[in-house]
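Thought: the user asked what Putative ABC transport system substrate-binding protein looks like in 3D. I have the sequence; next I should run the structure tool and report back without guessing.
Action: structure_tool
Action Input:
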Amino acid sequence: MLRRRVKRRDVLLLMAGVAMSTTRSHAQKPSMPIIGYLCPESPELFASRLQAFHQGLGEAGFVEGRNVKIEFQWADGQYSRLPALAADLVARNVDVLVAPGGAPVALAAKAASATKPIVFEMGGDPVQLHVVDSLSRPGGNITGVSSLSVDVSPKRLEFMRDLVPTATKLMVVVNPTSPTAQSQLQKLHAAAATLGVRLEVLGASKEDEFESVFAAATSDGAGGLVFTSDPYFAFRSSRLAALAMKYRVPAITQTRDFPIAGGLMSYGGDFMQSHRRAGIYAGRILSGEKPSDLPVQLVTKVELVINLKAAKLLGHPFSSAFVAGADEVLE
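Observation:
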């Protein structure tokens, strides 16, 4: 009898232990997958991009609050915070880390984890920046979307030269902290030599440096300002547009946000499509696909957006041919 009671007690204890273990595992397991969203800016500045990401995520079958949770980290324009914010999201054990908004975000995410699935969105060349091994076979734990908008900076120079054909000097504004700064400048200098125009390069990596750039363009008699592709510039389009009109300087940037805010013109990739596709990739990874099996997608569409009212105020009206070649004309 004693032996039977001992056996029964052992079985009961074992059953209790299994029940406790099962309860504990259910308590620890999240009710839905979690996306970690690493953003270089503030929610206000990133609203349109985030909307496009949600659209793509929905196309992949995921809706925030219904069957996926998103945890955000916002750098608020302080890009030096990105590595720590990326590490924090990795520590929260998110299922996939999304790194949109440029090369600095992608590089911070990649440095934070060699195993956590990562989806980036950028305008630079992810192979040249050593983010992936190749576009078709990214390898490792990271893939994403690129508009390759840094490659069209010389075309912005050409558009400015077409608008101001008598200009002998144009100014280029570059963010010296950008990982793509030097490659863009090399291409711009080559384009300037072909166009027969002299370039003066000005650096700006902080918002309080913007005004001195426009003031210099006015005082030095530059025909116009050409901004390199850089997320820090793109997300401050309203400020740049206001300064361009204040100093009456023709300027071109990479994003349509600039002419929409009252600036002259923009030429660059379609950011709505690149962020939407990042959302689709995040959803596909949550559904079980591996980043290494998903080739880097290229958003090849680039768009020229012009603002006729700004051109009139600046005294540089667009020719009929220029207007005909624009993808969008703002009245």
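Thought: the tool returned a structure. Summarizing for the user.
Final Answer: Structure for Putative ABC transport system substrate-binding protein predicted. Confidence is low (pLDDT under 50) at residues 1-29. Residues 2-28 form the longest helix (27 residues).
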